[in-house]
Write a structure and sequence with these properties.
The protein is mainly beta. It folds into four domains: about 60 residues, OB fold (Dihydrolipoamide Acetyltransferase, E2P) (Beta Barrel), CATH 2.40.50.140; about 60 residues, Beta Barrel (OB fold (Dihydrolipoamide Acetyltransferase, E2P)); about 70 residues, Nucleic acid-binding proteins (OB fold (Dihydrolipoamide Acetyltransferase, E2P)); about 70 residues, Winged helix-like DNA-binding domain superfamily/Winged helix DNA-binding domain (Arc Repressor Mutant, subunit A), CATH 1.10.10. The chain contains three helices and 18 strands. The strands form four sheets. It has a five-stranded antiparallel β-sheet, with no helix packed on it. A five-stranded antiparallel β-sheet has the order 8-7-6-9-10, with no helix packed on it. Strands 11-12-13-15-14 form a five-stranded mixed β-barrel. The protein starts with 5 loop residues before the first strand and ends with a strand.
Length: about 280
Amino acid sequence: MLFGQKQTLVIVKKVEFGVYLATSMEDRENRVLLPGKQVPAGANVGDEIEVFLYKDSQDRPIATTNTPKLTLGETARLKVVSVGKVGAFLDWGLEKDLFLPFREQIVKVKEGDEVIVALYLDKSSRLCATMRIYPYLSTESPYQAEDEVTGTIYEISQNFGAFVAVDDKYSALIAKKELYGELKVLQQVSARVIKVKEDGKLDLSIRQKAHIQMDTDAQALLELLAQNGGKLPIGDKSTPDKIRKWTGMSKNEFKRAAGRLYKERKVMVEAEQIFAVR
């Protein structure tokens, strides 16, 4: 019998409070209870039933005919129903909520949050959730370059960028050079596929193609100038980090936007300063 998966078992014994199931009539060692309220009407010894196996609140093996929102090794978006001293509990469609330990949380979650998690077995053979879903995401997406997709950021790396679960199940990355604005874990994003790697993982961009994005960036730069008294302490010689801090743009994106506005005689650009022309 396998915890965390749907499987077909046979009724080997009927009792007042339910039926006992096993892999075969001859299996007398590994039996699991299916509570009476879950037993299909008219079911008898020898009948086969498809069930899902997990452990109840007292850590006893239990079967259910209900279908959970995810099975072992899968990923799914689940809602946080409560947070306790050792972790959070998620609604996964069964009577006993799914445990998400603090150590498996990339960011601390709170009641009402929706998180994408995978299902795994801990050392005590208990089913638990993890937000560390990278190994569980599929690389067999239906998407191709230039397709528009939606996904959720599940981890942000200073070295690589923002890791995204497209459609809650496909592996994707917004590379560091493609990051724009302030992004955070659990944020949902719309993006464009810029490449499908040989291993099937998706490279994404949340920016438009350069000629389209330049118009958006130019307008954003004008608005930033207006919000800061018509002047910003960044210019042609400013560092990429400083430019990104002030604008959310890469240095090249900033220079393209500033160049567009300069040609339109809306700004003047100096080594460490840009200001609006009044």
